[in-house]
Amino acid sequence: MESIFEREPVEIAPGAVHTPDWLSLVEQQRLVAACREWAAPPAGMRHTRLPSGGVMSVQTVCLGWHWTPYRYSRTTEDGSPVKALPGWLAELGARAVGDPGYVPDVALVNFYDGVAKMGLHQDKDERSDAPVVSLSVGDSCVFRFGNTENRNRPWTDVELRGGDLFVFGGPSRFAYHGVTKTVPGSGDPATGLTAGRLNITLRVSGLD
Ligand SMILES: O=C(O)CCC(=O)C(=O)O
Ligand SMILES: [Fe+2]
């Protein structure tokens, strides 16, 4: 684990930077309120079904493009159009990467209850190598950031807390990553999220 005393930006791997405490409390509150609206049906939050027949433990709602393993579409499983990705969220992403030319057109909004995890995977259904921006609110988690070859070591376990930013691009864009556990009760209830963890990843789909 990265030291719990380290709250400065850290380059975890080339092109992968963890910036603790990047979101203000007000920004976190805005995200929590927005996530509540996005989570509501139609095209709301649900457990993604896997081709194996199982479901992911995480609950997800998509904005801009709807992701199901392993492709993007404009409509959800129930036939509803995917919700729009608002301009303010895309602008937050541009600020996160420090590039006004970064225009994400997909967001995956993930909710982790106290037992949800996410297995090691690559974000590779995009047809763009633009960076992925990850914003976290609520409970802390252990975010495992691996290599681009396979699910094995080397990896680095990073504690992502509410308010933290993680950007992975360049040589790390297609690195395996996942969430091995969350820490229930560790989030700041002042965000409006009293239990669980929210993570929002912004991506450029490369689709039109
Ligand atoms: O929850 C996280 O921090 C990671 C989410 C993720 O990897 C994804 O949505 O593809
Ligand atoms: Fe991912």
Automatic annotation (TrEMBL):
InterPro entries, per the entry: Alkb, AlkB-like, AlkB-like_sf, Oxoglu/Fe-dep_dioxygenase_dom
PROSITE patterns: FE2OG_OXY (PS51471)
Ranges for domain Fe2OG dioxygenase: 103-206
Cofactor(s) required for function per UniProt: Fe(2+)
SUPFAM superfamilies to which the protein is assigned, alphabetical: Clavaminate synthase-like
Any one GO molecular-function label of the UniProt entry: dioxygenase activity
Domain of life: Bacteria
Keywords associated with the record: Dioxygenase, Iron, Metal-binding, Oxidoreductase
Signal sequence, start to end: none
Pfam families: 2OG-FeII_Oxy_2 (PF13532)
PANTHER family xrefs: ALKYLATED DNA REPAIR PROTEIN ALKB-RELATED, NUCLEIC ACID DIOXYGENASE ALKBH1
The protein's name: Alpha-ketoglutarate-dependent dioxygenase AlkB
